[in-house]
Design a protein that fits this description.
With about 375 residues, this protein is α+β, with helices and mostly antiparallel strands. The chain contains 8 helices and 19 strands. Among the domains are: about 55 residues, no CATH class; about 60 residues, OB fold (Dihydrolipoamide Acetyltransferase, E2P) (Beta Barrel), CATH 2.40.50; about 120 residues, 3-Layer(aba) Sandwich (Aminopeptidase), CATH 3.40.630. Helices cover about 25% and strands about 25% of the residues. The strands form 4 sheets. Strands 14-15-16-17-19-18 form a 6-stranded mixed sheet, covered by helices on one side. The protein has a 5-stranded antiparallel sheet with strand order 6-5-4-7-8, with no helix packed on it. A hairpin with a 3-residue loop joins β15 and β16. The longest helix is centred in the middle third of the chain and has 21 residues. It is globular and about 70 Å long.
């Protein structure tokens, strides 16, 4: 695979074999990944969360219990001031989603100061190497913090991994000292979007990095097409993507399959072609939450399993954690993708002033037109 990265002061982008798969504008001074002091305002036991003041118009939403069983934080109380990390930005009327289980990512490790879990990236598949990395993680952490050994650590020297972990732990100690300053607003800001792209993709291979260079006309065309509801597939089928409040619904259609391919174009083959395009569009549009995909009906469980595995393979290069859950009893393929930064729609668009974002307007019937005349 030929992977190319574009970096500029306004945007960063990734192309794989000529297909644009990521596009991010450079973020401002605050965003997902930031760590800052949060004051617990109200404990909402029924909602299992606490409304937390982080210096914004809307309070953030902080869960009372973190997901990890290895989390070491104490029970929250109203009035507490605790370091919190923005997991996902504000959306509509909802405040930012927060977490006390802080994570500081590096090239080789992800350090978790409020956790004691030692893990290894799922991209490391060799069991012997996986155990070696886990043992290295335990040795480095020494029950001081949690660590996840990233894919980049697989080929790294142990001393380089240890040095990075120690530097991240020093950053955590600096944050603890900064918490004593009542006027401190921001404790930690992650690397720029471009730096994170290079850091995440470097272990997987980068053919070229273009700095302060505009996208090619073809890549710009692909970016504009990512705003379309309907995407054509190479052999005549298409996918239709409808973004809702809580999920994105994707419909796969056979369309008008091109001559010459029609004789071998079974429903399964069209679905397999759709898997590749859906993964590209999800990464490019930065879709998050639940993706519910209505594939063309297939006759056998073997075909459905083949499509499920193809979807997993299509998302294998995705930097964002994505889980393919499989088919429901209604035949819908369920995928979840971690939410973080705003998606393409939130960044680049706003609701239509006519339909108010519904996509529909009331018909002007002849009688109404006559009365108006």
């Amino acid at each position: 695979m030929k992977r190319e990265i574009w970096l500029s002061k306004d945007f960063c982008a990734v192309a794989e074999d000529g297909r644009l798969v990521e596009y991010r504008p450079e973020t401002g001074p605050e965003g997902a990944g930031d760590i800052l002091p949060g004051r617990v305002e109200r404990i909402m036991k029924g909602m299992n969360c606490a409304f937390t003041d982080i210096g914004r118009k809307r309070p953030g939403i902080l869960p009372l219990q973190e997901k990890s069983a290895s989390f070491t934080g104490e029970k929250l109380r109203s009035g507490d001031i605790v370091p919190v990390q923005i997991r996902s930005e504000e959306r509509g009327e909802k405040g930012a989603f927060l977490s006390r289980d802080l994570t500081l990512p590096g090239r080789y490790v992800i350090l978790m100061p409020m956790n004691r879990h030692i893990g290894v990236s799922g991209r490391v598949t060799a069991l012997e190497r996986k155990e070696e990395l886990r043992a290295l993680g335990r040795e480095i952490a020494g029950d001081r913090f949690g660590l996840v050994l990233r894919f980049g650590a697989e080929a790294a020297e142990p001393d380089d991994v240890r040095e990075e972990a120690d530097a991240l732990f020093q950053t955590c100690q600096e944050m603890e000292r900064a918490m004593q300053n009542p006027g401190q607003r921001l404790l930690y800001h992650p690397k720029s979007a471009g730096e994170q792209l290079v850091q995440d993709y470097e272990p997987r291979g980068i053919a070229a990095v273009y700095r302060d260079t505009p996208l090619t006309p073809d890549l710009l065309r692909q970016l504009r097409e990512a705003e379309n509801r309907r995407i054509q597939l190479p052999h005549g089928g298409n996918i239709v993507m409808d973004r809702c409040e809580a999920l994105t619904v994707i419909d796969v259609n056979s369309g008008s399959v091109r001559a010459g391919w029609a004789q071998r174009a079974t429903h399964t083959e069209i679905n397999l072609e759709a898997c590749r395009e859906i993964a590209i569009q999800a990464r490019l549009r930065n879709l998050a939450g639940a993706l519910v995909i209505d594939m063309i009906n297939m006759e056998t469980d073997a075909d459905r399993e083949r499509v499920r595995k193809a979807m997993e393979d299509a998302f294998r290069e995705d930097r964002v954690k994505t889980v393919v859950h499989g088919f429901t009893h209604l035949g819908l393929l369920e995928v979840t993708r971690r939410r973080g930064e705003p998606d393409l729609y939130e960044r680049e668009m706003e609701p239509c002033p006519v339909c108010k974002g519904s996509g529909w307007v009331r018909k002007q019937r002849e009688k109404e037109k006559g009365n108006q005349a």
